[in-house]
Amino acid sequence: xxxxxxxxxxxxxxxxxxxxxxxxxxxxxxxxxxxxxxxxxxxxxxxxxxxxxxxxxxxxxxxxxxxxxxxxxxxxxxxxxxxxxxxxxxxxxxxxxxxxxxxxxxxxxxxxxxxxxxxxxxxxxxxxxxxxxxxxxxxxxxxxxxxxxxxxxxxxxxxxxxxxxxxxxxxxxxxxxxxxxxxxxxxxxxxxxxxxxxxxxxxxxxxxxxxxxxxxxxxxxxxxxxxxxxxxxxxxxxxxxxxxxxxxxxxxxxxxxxxxxxxxxxxxxxxxxxxxxxxxxxxxxxxxxxxxxxxxxxxxxxxxxxxxxxxxxxxxxxxxxxxxxxxxxxxxxxxx
Length: 336
Ligand SMILES: [Zn+2]
Prior knowledge:
The protein is α/β, with parallel strands linked by helices. The chain has helices at residues 2-14, 29-33, 38-48, 61-76, 144-166, 188-195, 237-251, 274-278, 307-326; strands at 89-92, 106-113, 118-128, 173-180, 204-210, 226-230, 254-256, 284-288. Zinc ion (ZN) binds at residues 128, 146-147, 183, 211-212.
């Protein structure tokens, strides 16, 4: 952080004449993306996926502790709560989780970056922070990849966007960072959000969903610089093309569409939170590393995460969101 502040100060001094922003800071989108680092992702993940969080089962003590950690992060970094949330939380009654044996109340957690020109148009970046808890033998399911990885990626992206806002370089459209609960029991938190949206769904431009971005699929060990994209072309050619262009220009990893195939037997398109947005005809992209030997096992732990790769993937999602938020025309569901 100190280094970045120093850099900002320097830029301010030497480049006032060419300032692009209202505050005279001409940091580029790539420089904001670079504030997302493997080291910071690791620091957050070692807390979110620690034994103390007890596997983050929906409504459990560890699930609530994680929610508090996320809220504290947003507060500390000056990132706003949406006006109509209850201090960064969207509470969900226990009765909504009736599918659980002993349902307890839980909450979605939300951070908000208000757009400078079209604040009513909102891009939702989501990840589920719940996982599956502790088994009868006392094994803690830390869920470092699933979906601790997406959870902490959102924190780093929000921080980067907030820095841009502080410099007067904030996005034109708004961005909602949505940490949903209840995913593992059936996509409940995202279902609840889309049934009770804090911003009208017709103004929700797209959903970029991040569920497992810290590991390597055993089938990709020979070419690990990849991420699977699912759903990008289902509702919007526009979003798909933008995503491809952004990757080529700023990141350049392999975007693998293996699981985007309609006939893929895994049906991943229907299996994470973006689907609750897609079913309302909101364009989505699901970012996913694929399954591995530790998937939904108590061995999905923090020391197995590929932090450098996760950094690259998080920067890709950040750059894609930046483009959607700042381009002249809104992304539309042009394939409907
Ligand atoms: Zn997951």
